[in-house]
Amino acid sequence: MKVLKGERRHPSKDNWFNRFLKDNISTRLYQKQINAQIQKLLEKWAEPFSTFAYLLGETYPTPYLELAWKYLLSNHPDDSITDVSMDQIHQDMRFRWDQVKQIGESLTNKAFEALVKRIDLSSIPAEDRAIVIFNPLNYERKSLKLTFRMNQKINPWKFMTPPQNRLLNFNYRIGGNGDPW
């Protein structure tokens, strides 16, 4: 077996393909954070809730999900997501993430609408409002934290969970500007 010594910056025979970039230890952490959020949007929200809507008779959005995954996976090459590429590549990645976010949010909202319209809300008095909360986890939550942005003070709310109508603890605050992303 041939023994190689020294650095191997050019492991291919033609010294062109598979070159390693010297002294590159940088990263763009914000890109990894955005990627995790966008991937979670597809994995935990858009796909599962589109599946639930499909099981209730809605059309499954295969072409849109495939396009969203194509855009997301286009951002996953090692040189792109680890900041080894030039700035234009990272700007293109941001554009693709924006596309995935728009597709994912749209599909999730469409699935929510399909599910909510099948919920019997006839027992709720006309002066009351129903707020439907979706749990994307595969287990029942033991606690719930809700944040609403409100422009005026309202009477205290009571949250009940069907079918047992258990009262949930709920706190609210006036104002606030939290971005869910």
Question: Topology of this protein?
Answer:
Elements: H1 29-55, H2 62-74, H3 78-81, H4 87-116, E1 159-161, E2 166-168
Helix pairs in contact: 1-2, 1-4, 2-4
**Count of beta strands:** 2
Q: Secondary-structure element order, as H and E?
A: HHHHEE
CATH class value of the domain at 29-116: Mainly Alpha
| Poorly predicted runs of 5 or more residues | 169-181
CATH fold-level assignment of the domain at 29-116: Substrate Binding Domain Of Dnak, Chain:A, Domain 2
**What is the fourth-level CATH superfamily of the domain at 29-116?**
Glycoside hydrolase family 38, central domain
Largest sheet, strands/sense/barrel: 2 strands, antiparallel
Helical run tally: 4
Strand content: under 5%
- Principal-axis shape: elongated
What would you say this structure looks like, in words?
By secondary structure, the chain is mostly helical. The protein has a domain of 88 residues: Glycoside hydrolase family 38, central domain (Substrate Binding Domain Of Dnak, Chain:A, Domain 2, Up-down Bundle), CATH 1.20.1270. It is elongated, with a radius of gyration of 24 Å. Helix 2 runs antiparallel to helix 4. The longest helix has 30 residues. The termini are far apart. The C terminus is likely disordered.
